[in-house]
TrEMBL record:
PANTHER family: PHOSPHATE-BINDING PROTEIN PSTS (PTHR42996:SF1)
Protein name: PBP domain-containing protein
UniProt family annotation: Belongs to the PstS family.
Lineage start: Eukaryota, Amoebozoa, Tubulinea, Elardia, Arcellinida
InterPro entries named among the record's database cross-references: ABC_phos-bd_PstS (IPR005673), PBP_domain (IPR024370), Phosphate-bind_PstS (IPR050962)
Keyword annotations from UniProtKB, A to Z: Phosphate transport, Transport
Coiled-coil spans in chain: none
Record GO cellular component, one term: ATP-binding cassette (ABC) transporter complex
Pfam families to which the protein is assigned, alphabetical: PBP_like_2
Length: 341
């Protein structure tokens, strides 16, 4: 059966196609790696593609989808549900969606299962670099930077530190120590519920940089996971928007969010100590440098389960950096649909 993807790419007008390709090479892979039969009628062809996954680059995906719908010379409908990396990835594996976007590559065992020993090609296409940051709502001047090491952050998230006036926090923040620390609100930890790539990236960083202090675990006992068992006196929130809402409304809150989302809402970002010992925010960092030294597979068709950009060395490297992957089937013939579908 003909692919529902390749015609979508081919029937963009040439000027727009040339503009689109520099935007991301992943788009060409998305459409050019599928099987296409020439026996179709353009006038009768219409395409609907469904995707789901991470919330972090959802605005990018919605914008790109809207442009494709506008530029396409055939009737085209694209959907993307921002439901979290874990859900999107699970739906992709189950065949519920046509593609997924995730900061989490497929685990090795899942990759081996869905590729059926190499008879089916599943692609991990890095489409963007993303970062996660810590944001806070301490009532301090906007130009006062809050510094945290991985060890102190881990103690805060695990509730081993519950006061912003704790000496471990003040030692890193002389400007905070010079204020009336008795008036500081207590620490409120806000975290994602359900499976979240932001939770995974945060736990991966704290496991790598502060393994003794990071004591939270998943239900299966893993220190790095998309879902963790949080202390009862923490606050769970759904999606980046939910975490943002808590930080905006609760003084003294600390949470982790996609950096761009938090900055767009003008939240106060924590300066985190990177692997070289420098305190910086994501907007001060060279985000791309994390990918410079990372070991990458030779092909999008390989397993990417071991790829990590977390806590890479470099004076301006950001310690919580990740790829956002498009998860794709190299051939759409698996859909087993006849005719123009």
């Amino acid at each position: 059966p003909p692919s529902p993807l390749l015609p979508f790419f081919l029937f963009l007008s040439p000027p727009l196609t040339s503009t689109l390709l520099p935007f991301s090479n992943m788009l060409s892979l998305l459409f050019l790696t599928t099987v296409f039969s020439p026996a179709f009628c353009l006038e009768e062809l219409s395409l609907t593609l469904h995707g789901s996954g991470t919330t972090n680059p959802s605005k990018l995906l919605w914008h790109a989808g809207a442009l494709f719908e506008e530029w396409s010379k055939i009737p085209l409908h694209l959907t993307y549900r921002a439901v979290g990396s874990s859900t999107g990835r699970a739906e992709f594996v189950a065949g519920v969606n046509d593609y997924a976007a995730s900061e989490l590559p497929l685990p090795e065992d899942v990759y081996n299962e869905v590729t059926q020993g190499g008879t089916v090609q599943i692609l991990h296409v890095p489409m963007a670099l993303g970062t996660v940051s810590f944001f806070h709502s301490l009532p301090i001047p906007a130009d006062t930077q809050l510094n945290l090491t991985a060890a102190v952050a881990a103690r805060l998230f695990t509730r081993n530190i519950t006061s912003w006036s704790d000496q471990a926090v003040l030692d890193l923040n002389p400007a905070l120590a010079a204020t009336d620390t008795a008036s500081l609100p207590p620490v409120t930890i806000v975290h994602r519920v359900f499976g979240s790539s932001s939770t995974y990236l945060t736990s991966e960083f704290l496991t790598a940089a502060a393994p003794d202090e990071w004591t939270l675990r998943s239900a299966s006992g893993a220190s790095v996971a998309a879902t963790l068992e949080w202390p009862e006196d923490t606050t769970g929130a759904e999606g980046s928007g939910g975490v943002t809402s808590v930080i905006q409304t609760v003084p003294g809150a600390l949470g982790y969010i996609d950096s761009g989302h938090g900055l767009a809402f003008q939240l106060s970002e924590v300066a985190v100590q990177n692997a070289d010992g420098n305190f910086l925010t994501s907007s001060q960092a060279d985000v791309g440098s994390a990918a410079d030294s990372a070991a990458l597979p030779e092909s999008p068709a390989d397993s990417w389960h071991a790829v990590t950009l977390v806590n890479q060395a470099g004076p301006s490297a950001w310690p919580m950096t990740t790829f956002t992957y498009l998860l794709l089937n190299a051939s759409q013939t698996f859909r087993q649909e006849a005719g123009e579908q």
